[in-house]
Design goal:
The protein is 29% helix and 19% strand. The chain is of the alpha/beta class.
Amino acid sequence: ILQSKTGAVPRYKRYLDEVEGVPIGDVWTDLRMLQGASKERLGYPTQKPEALLERIIAASCPENGVVLDPFAGCGTSIVAAQRSGRAWIGIDITYAAIGLIRKRLKDSFGEDAQYTVVGEPTTVADAFALFQQDPYQFQWWALARVGAGKTEQKKGSDKGIDGRLYFFDDPTGKTKQIIFSVKGGKVDVGDIRDLRGVIDRESAEIGVLITLRGPTRDMRTEALSAGYYTSPWNNQDHPRIQILTIKELLEGKKIDYNPAQGANVTFQKAPKAKKQAGKQQEMDL
């Protein structure tokens, strides 16, 4: 009980940490929507604020519980669960979503986010089955293997470009790009010539043909005739036209280039998580 001065009416002083407070309602107006310039925004059309999912998880999932998102999308619930220290399971049918979630977890948590992807191809036979089932998803999966993004998320004319990857290897900060063409069916020397024409048209430094089937000798000869791109970073030469088979990608072979920093063209980089915590997780296709 406090009396500020003689003659004043005494009053009861209450401390916030000693009262229960007012239960939160079902209309939350204190959470800001994602703005165009938000660091969280990744270009996914239905993306929600991480703060919204963190509140939902804190209110509905115990610390030893598991968060299940059967429509994982761009992975906001997964990132929120990881940051909150909950185990999680994310499910999505598209390789676009799986690739984005992988990148988002890496950007936000680095190596601290440990998870297993269930359902993606692990053998050439699996990749061939995916191509037979859905060539478009096959393209998404193949591009994700090299860290690239698909040029368009909707089906349609791609003008000979299935994906792009921007990289930086110039002390002046100039942005460079790699153009990708993904083929699951038969390939021949004409595919190399087409790719060469595309990188000339787009003023790209490197073109990469990702193919499910092995290239012919003529294809490799044509690729070599395109010459080399010399990196100003260290004066190393890198083939302007490169051929990578799915078998080689599954064995760990990488694109031959020397970037100081790489960036996915389709989605922006997610902000680094301030708190890194979590348990073994699982993503399912």
